[in-house]
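cron nightly-structures :: item 1 of 1
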Amino acid sequence: MPDLPPELLSGPFTLARSRELGLTRRVLARHFRRLHHGVWVHRDHVMTHDDRLVAARLALPTRARLTGITRLQELGLPFGPRYPLRFVIQGDHHLDIDDVFLHRTKRLPPTDDVGVTPPAAYIAYCARARVIDAIKVGDWLLRHKHMTVEEVRKLALTELWRPGAQEANWVLDHLDGRARSLPESEVRALLVAAGLPKPRLNVAVDDEAQVICDLVYEKYKTVVEHEGSQHQEDRTQYTLDLGRYAWMRRNDVEYVQSTHEKLTHPRSLVGEVYVVLGGRGYLGPPPDFGQSWRRLFTSLSAAVGREYRVSG
């Protein structure tokens, strides 16, 4: 077996680079496999997501920029499909690359060292997202200070022709950067869309500000807490939860627990919150699973289009 350059054993590389390192076509064909046109990898290398991203960058023109959900996932967003990897390029450039979608635009949005800027990536994401997903992702970006409402609105209004601009401008009014998790954002969106009162997010329910709850109805002494898997797997978190719920019982604070399983039946979860609120004096109407509710689960583009048609 010939000595292979170590550089070529750890991930994707270009055909041009292999030639610079003296690799012959025969050795290349015997010990490596082709990923994309002009991009290869050692036959025994197990590809990671980061490797696939590197391979895509090598196969694309250098002026192609990461965009949409792929760019947002590079910020750490734990949500959305991994593939296709989304890039954008200025001009009418066509390429067919496995697991890569190359968007074309007449003018690139603002960019940084990674791809388009987070506000621009969010606008691109909104062009294809469901309403509820755009709310969750937008909350997360605000919470982690990757964008501000003002940045997105200014960019969207400046370039209303860009796909996602009108959608992003519309959904901004539904975001809340105080949400600490994606499921928490989802629960809030469900409650509001069903016509229940809008809860406050992550506020203290005790005088010492030691008991912080996810979604709080102060008037009705009721909270909604989302319990993710970490609440069961992390013993420290589990112990804190027990103490918090014990405090609520002692102080006559009602609580509804939201879980991943309950979120698969959103109407039931909303109904549970309504019943608890009703027991605490809420006299408002029952949940309405009509137009506003259905809109949550449609594309943002369709929701915005319908609203503009109605208002126009």
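cron nightly-structures :: done
The chain has a mean pLDDT of 93.
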